[in-house]
Each structure stands twice: as C-alpha cells, then as structure tokens.
Amino acid sequence: MSFRTTTAVDYVEDVSPGTGALPPRAWYATSDAMALSLNGDWRFRLSATADAEDDSFADPGFDAGDWAEIAVPGHWVLQGHGSPIYTNHLYPFPVDPPRVPTENPTGDHLRVFDLPADWPSDGGAVLRFDGVESCARVWLNGTDLGEFKGSRLPHEFAVGHLLKPGGNVLAVRVHQWSAASYLEDQDQWWLPGIFRDVTLLHRPAGCVLDFFVHASYDHTSGEGTLKVESDVDGRVTVPALDIDVATGESVTVPVEPWTAETPRLYDGVLASEGERVPLRIGFRTVVLEDGLIKVNGTPVLFKGVNRHEWHPEKGRALDPETMRADVLLMKRHNINAVRTSHYPPHPAFLELCDAYGLWVIDECDLETHGFVEQAWRDNPVDDDRWTPALLDRAARMVERDKNHPSVVIWSLGNEAGTGRGLTAMAEWIHGRDASRLVHYEGDINCRDTDMYSRMYAFHEEVERIGRGLDGGTLKSRELPFILCEYGHAMGNGPGGIADYQRLFERYDRLQGGFIWEWIDHGIKDERYGFAYGGDFGEELHDGNFVCDGLLFPDRKPSPGLIEYKKVIEPIRIEGWGSPLLERGRDLGEGAYGTVRVCNAYDFADLSAIAFEWAYQVDGETVESGMLPVPALAPGESADVKLPEPPDTGSGETQWTVRALLATDTAWGPKGHQVAWGQFPVSAPPPVHVAQREAPRLGDGRITLGPASFDSRTGALMSVGAVDVAGLRLDVWRAPTDNDDGAPWQPDLRYGLLWRKLGLHRMRHRLDAVELTGDALTVRTRVAPAARQVGLATVYRWTSDGERLRVTVSVSPEGDWTVPLPRLGVRFGLSGAAARVRWFGGGPGEAYPDTRSASELGRWESTVDELGTPYVRPQENGARADVRWAELGGLRIEGEPEFWFSARRWTNEQLDDARHLTDLVPGETVWVNLDHGQHGIGSQSCGPGPLPQYFLRAEPTEFSFVFSEIS
Ligand code: IPT
C-alpha cells in the first residue's frame, strides 16, 4: 500500500534524478523477447498545479471515462491543452533553484492494457519510457513505481510482479516544471508530455541485461577486434566473420572498417541463456593523435549540422519516417556529421546514423543557459547538490548509446557554464568509455575535454586558431578545433560558409564544423502558416529565433541547405586555373582543355561515382557525354582531359562537369548529383544597342524607340505593349534576420542602421528631364528625409528603334557610413506576368556570400516559385549573374549581369509582414534588377558579411536593355 496525500509532490522540486528506476543500460529496439508497445491513445487530464488532484486516478477501477484523449507519444500543448512557450535561454519562471512555480501544468495520463495472449508467464518485465518532459511519477495497477527526471533519457522500471493478464492500469503523472527544468534550458519550445515511446518489455529468465560492444579497427593490419562485455554470460556470433566467442572474450579478424562514408555493419547476435539480441557491429577506432581526431588512423573533417528533433505538428515526438527523412536529406546534401543538439535523440535515429553513415556527437540532455543572466551564480553544474543528477544524465546517455559505431564523441551538454559537476561528468565518461572523445564547448580551457570547441567564432579568429596563433591554455593549444555551431541559418542565409570551409580545408587543426541548425522549429498554425515565439501569447519569448534551420518546418530544403551541399561537396571539380568566381577572366587558349578532379572524401574512393560533362552555349547544352575519371583514392586528384569543344560560333560558352552516383545506394538513387563544377570558355558578348533614335516630345508623352515616357516626370510608362509602372532606383530590402543581427554580436547591425538612416523611405527628387539628339536623360536625387546623404541618380535612355537601353549612374553624396542593402532599379508589371525565364544563376536564390550553388544556365520558373518562404518574411529570392530575363512580355538584358527578383508585393510590404500569411498578392508584379546586393553573413548569431561582400556606396554605373518579346 502506498501512502498518498494531495501534497506529496516534493519530488518535483528535488534535485535528485528520481527514485525507483532501474540502472541505465544499453538500448536495443528488438530481441526475441516479447515487447508490447503502449503507444496510442491514452486518457488525459490537465491540472493547473502539481497537486491540484490527488493520485486516486492511479487506482485500478478509477473511472476516467470523461477524460480527454491524448496521443502518446505526444506533447499535450500541441494537442489542444495549454500552449507551447518559446524562450531561447531565459527561464520562463522565476530563477530560484530548485523551486518552480505553483502554476505547474500537470498532465495525468492513463492507459489500461491487456497482455497479449502469448505473453510468457515466466520471467519478469520492464516498463520503459524513452522520453518524458520534464518529470513523471508512475504507477502500475495502483503501485507507485517511483518518479524520474531527464526528459530525453530513458527510464525503466521492473514491473513483472505487478502485471496481470488483463486490465493493467498504467498511470503517469507528468509535471511541466520541475527541478530538472533548470537543467533543460535548451533554445527550443518548452513542450511537456510523454513524447517518446512507452514499451513493456518481457524479460525472460536468463535474459541479457547490459552489454558493451567494443569493436575496434587497426588500420595498419586491416583487422578488427571484437569484445562484448555483458552483465550476463553468453555467446557472440557474427556469421559473416565466422566469429563465435564467449562474452568477455576478444577476437581479432580481418574486417572492413566502419566509417561515415563506408558504413559497413556486420550483423551479429548476443545470446544469453534466455534471450537473443541482434547486434549491428561497426569496427572503428577513434583516437586523439598528433593533435587530431582520427578515425581508423585518418583525420576526419566534420561537415556537420546541429539537429534538434522537430516536427511542425508533433514537436519532438518524431515518428520513424521523419527520422529517416532527416538522415536521407543529410546524406543527399553531403552532410557527414550530426551533433545531437542538445540532448540524446530518439535512439532509432542513432540506428539510422549507423546504417547510413553519419559521424555523431551525442550530446547530453543538459543546459543551464538562463543562469548567464545572473553571471552564472547558483549554476547547478557548480553545485555539488546537483552532481548526482548530472552523473545520472551522463550515465543514461552513455549506457543507452554506447553500442553505436556512429557515436564518436560524447558531449557533456550545451551552454551550461563551467563547474565541478561537468568535470565529474567528464571524468565518469572517460572512465566508462575510453574509446571515444569528450566534447563540451563551454570548457574553453579544455580542462575536461578532448577538443577545443567554439561556437560562431569569426573567420579571422578561426584562421588564427588554424595557424595555432590563438593563445589559450597549453592543453587547448595542443588540441584539434571544431566549430560545434556556426553558420546561423536563421532566415535568409547563412552567408560566408564557403569562406569557413576554405579555412577548414587549409588548416589541419580545423576539423570542421556544425551548422546551426538543421530545421526551423515552426509550429504549423492555421493563423500564420507556421507559428514562432510570441504567437501563443507568451509572457517572455524570443520570436523567430526558433526558426534558424537549413530546412523549413515542413522539411523542404531552404537555399541555405543547397548552398551548404555545394560548399561541402566531397569531390572538387575545377577548370584549370578558373574557379567559378573568376568567370569571364580571359585565361587564354589551351588552358581550358582539362578539368581537375579532387577526391575530398576522407575514406571513400571514387569508384561509386560517374562523371558527366556538358558543353554549353548561352546556358544551353550543345553536347554532353561521360567523362572517364580514375577511381581516385581519398585526397588524390587528377587532371582529366576534356573532349575537343564543338565549334559553335559566337555566344558565351562553358563546361559543366557533374559527379553522380554511378548506381543506386542506400541513400540516393543512381544519377543523384554529389558535386559539380562549371568553368567558362568564352565570356558573355557585350550587349550592344546602337543609339539611333532621338526622343520625341508630344501630347504629354515622350517616345523613344519602343518606349513611352511621362514628359513631365520622365517616368517610363511602357515598352511596346507592355505597361511599366514606377521604374526607379531602389536601395531597400526587407532586412533579413542576419541584417538585423543579434544585440550581442559585435559587428554593426546594418539592418537597424539602414532603417535609422531611412533607406526604407527614400524620396526621389526630380531635377531635370532632358531631351537630346540621341538620349532622354532624367536627373534625380534619391535621399531620405532628415538626412544629408543622398544618391545623385541619372537615368540615360537610348534606343536603336527596337530595344531600349537605360544606363543608371549613381553618385553618392554626403557621408555614407553604411553599405547599401541593394542597388538597382525596381518597377511594376501587370499581375498577369506569371512565368519567368532567365539565363543566369539558378535554379535557386543566391546573394553575394551565398552563391556557391548558383549554377549558370537557362532556367524557368514562376513569380510565385521564385520566392523563398522564410517563416518570418524577409528579403529573398534573388537570382545571381543574370544575363537576361523574360517575364510579362518583356525581355531584360543586363550589362553587366544583374541580380533578378520578382514578387507579388513590394519590398515595403515584405518588410511589414510578420508571418507568411501577411503576404497578400497584389495586382502588380514588382521586379528588382540589382547591380549589387549587400552580403548576408550570419549575424543573427555570428559574424556579419565579410568585407569583400559589402555593397559600398560609391560611384556606380550599370545598364539594362528592355525589349518587347515578339
Ligand atoms: C547557441 C546555442 O547553443 C544554441 O542552442 C542556439 O541557441 C544558438 O546559439 C542560436 O540559435 S548559444 C549562442 C547565443 C551563443
């Protein structure tokens, strides 16, 4: 009999990890022992406080007939009970550890179940919870089993003695806030509930308890050594390797090693007297050697992402298909590593990482970031009372996940400051598992860790670190470096990642990084499309800082992911001496006959890759074929002869060479593009328009070739039959999250400065409309109210009778201390303009420092599809290097190439919008033709654009040629 009182909730505010649970052990999905999933519809009752209801609901016979139903796994706040809260690091309750507020939403969950008819009557049973946020108390058939904390960690209870064939009553009380909330202050939604599986496991007599698979690889001999330590004696068999040994015995045989690139797994079985557990064994050895992280003797370069678990409707209750989708998307975008920010993921995710091949930094469920607000005073990680809870978390992670070859690094947690508790965790982990390395970014001196790790360090500092000139403790200077977070993918961006990648590749000590982050945590919402912080009336919140991923909430890749895929591609294809950015430079005859292919994999050769070449004229392929490339070993490169280019006469010509999967693989179909390179043969011919026509004045209009203008204002009205509205200089873009930057970032926040200066409300003063024999010249001054700065802007219109050319000359006046957001012209076309064709960069969006993936070619799209649906609307959708574009009956050529965008709302409307649903298409298609765009950077949490991507206010001239499409 358990004693109950309505106030017996002291455990909620107890710093201890809990009582009653079994010791942690290795997790496995299946064995030949029976298991019963208790996922499904449960009865549910929400109370406003922890002790509002007594616990009689746990008694057999309690009638919950009038309770609501809730899906388990799930979060109640996403199922109509209460609402989610988003804060980055602020605790959404008064900081007074370990106390929590009286208002403590508490969900009582009830499920009645029968055992299957064939459930064995012998042996015991274990009830396993894979994840409950944040604190739960459990009863089975009226017996109090105990309570636990550690939201993203498993907890098991022995229940065999309590089970009945039918009518078992499982009662779980879940409190949203508990002492553990102080340890779980990750930058994400607060989402209470039983959000991972609940399973009843039969435990036969003589079953397997805990076991540790040690499978190392000796790269000098090509042999693997296997030893399975097991709490219960048994045998280990691996048929493919003829292994049949006792547990605890080690055996060495020739094997194929496991790497993220070549994820060779061997199926095996651990058989104890009472149970057979399938094993998936990957042989690999992780060491710190010569100041480098090496796997199987080779230093690795992490091309990683930080992955939170996210689903726009289910929150962190991820189904297997979603986990698989994440892994496939990562593999298909050349990502080779995941940091499981900031907690151990659902264990099935790690099984997928083993099978498909991803390096994993498995991070403990620990973050106390909110204490930064009080200079880290009272931080639980530096308070011995909390150390048992920290050690419990470390053990639950390591014991659960220790048999995954994909896990190469343990991370103590995130943003928890420093303290004795962290040291205790690191010591325990090092002692328990010497076969992996330990990471923790907050340990800047690397006292407890095996690598120097930072987040959002600027390029310049990363370069210094690469060169070993960064100072720091003796220990940290000897360690390899990773950026556990960089490239903040909030909204449009991240910019500058290609520049980081070049540094990683240049300096051995820099072993890569992990983009922040994988997916936007937007919540599907009828009102807004996707909701973010503040949309649920939260008292404190951090807005759309929760939407900073490479994927949109619905898992559609954002341009940031496409860029990242290109930046980290494992095969580099370069035209001799002609990197993409130098396109158009005359390199002389003969230099173009070869392509250099470099294998940038760490382990795989190129035997799985087929190469294809295409010779293109004005973006159209005129000839193509396969390119025989040797199966280069990792790190090797070869100069491969290209075929003789066909004689095509005039036009802009280039080679495009693609690296494709030669056959279907586990993660991508045959023909999937892994990498590509493009390099010019001849530059674009000049856009020539003879100045033949003279402008003519008559009847309120000026005509010039196909165009007509307002004679008073000099404004362009039409080109042939195409009406053109409001053509004028435009410098404004709806600031991106990265333009606005974060208050704590040191670079100037231009998004705010632009607005302060008034660039969003520029006035256009008309100074003169001049007609001469060969041109119409319109002189203006473009400037914001209240400021002295301005842009003297002259539009010079000429025509050969058919085509209309405008040359725009811009001369800054006054003291311009900020770069310009954009510089070009904008105008309106009829809303009927829907289809767009262009020759230039595509198919997707690009900006000066996010343009690696922009491929020069002929593209087609629609105005609607040109736009990128950032969850918080902001500047988007530009196409780079556009030679010409056609839409709405108009052809536009640029000299030089230009940035093209078109949308059904103005930049000002885009700027005003807070959610996608605020963007209402108008009658006009607004087109921007930009000579320049300011870089993007990643200042929403990192550096602004590098200086070379600045759009400085300086005297500039650029031209466009308009003609009607016949
Ligand atoms: C860093 C956090 O580790 C991560 O959880 C996330 O909040 C990210 O920033 C920003 O999106 S902490 C950083 C503010 C120093």
TrEMBL record:
<dbReference type="InterPro" id="IPR017853">
    <property type="entry name" value="GH"/>
</dbReference>
<dbReference type="InterPro" id="IPR006103">
    <property type="entry name" value="Glyco_hydro_2_cat"/>
</dbReference>
<dbReference type="InterPro" id="IPR004199">
    <property type="entry name" value="B-gal_small/dom_5"/>
</dbReference>
<dbReference type="InterPro" id="IPR008979">
    <property type="entry name" value="Galactose-bd-like_sf"/>
</dbReference>
<dbReference type="InterPro" id="IPR006104">
    <property type="entry name" value="Glyco_hydro_2_N"/>
</dbReference>
<dbReference type="InterPro" id="IPR036156">
    <property type="entry name" value="Beta-gal/glucu_dom_sf"/>
</dbReference>
<dbReference type="InterPro" id="IPR014718">
    <property type="entry name" value="GH-type_carb-bd"/>
</dbReference>
<dbReference type="Pfam" id="PF16353">
    <property type="entry name" value="LacZ_4"/>
</dbReference>
<comment type="similarity">
    <text>Belongs to the glycosyl hydrolase 2 family.</text>
</comment>
<dbReference type="InterPro" id="IPR011013">
    <property type="entry name" value="Gal_mutarotase_sf_dom"/>
</dbReference>
<dbReference type="Pfam" id="PF02929">
    <property type="entry name" value="Bgal_small_N"/>
</dbReference>
<dbReference type="InterPro" id="IPR023230">
    <property type="entry name" value="Glyco_hydro_2_CS"/>
</dbReference>
<protein>
    <recommendedName>
        <fullName>Beta-galactosidase</fullName>
        <ecNumber>3.2.1.23</ecNumber>
    </recommendedName>
</protein>
<dbReference type="InterPro" id="IPR050347">
    <property type="entry name" value="Bact_Beta-galactosidase"/>
</dbReference>
<keyword id="KW-0378">Hydrolase</keyword>
<dbReference type="InterPro" id="IPR032312">
    <property type="entry name" value="LacZ_4"/>
</dbReference>
<dbReference type="Pfam" id="PF02836">
    <property type="entry name" value="Glyco_hydro_2_C"/>
</dbReference>
<dbReference type="Pfam" id="PF02837">
    <property type="entry name" value="Glyco_hydro_2_N"/>
</dbReference>
<dbReference type="InterPro" id="IPR006101">
    <property type="entry name" value="Glyco_hydro_2"/>
</dbReference>
<dbReference type="InterPro" id="IPR013783">
    <property type="entry name" value="Ig-like_fold"/>
</dbReference>
<dbReference type="InterPro" id="IPR023232">
    <property type="entry name" value="Glyco_hydro_2_AS"/>
</dbReference>
<feature type="domain" description="Beta galactosidase small chain/">
    <location>
        <begin position="703"/>
        <end position="963"/>
    </location>
</feature>
<dbReference type="GO" id="GO:0016787">
    <property type="term" value="F:hydrolase activity"/>
</dbReference>
<keyword id="KW-0326">Glycosidase</keyword>
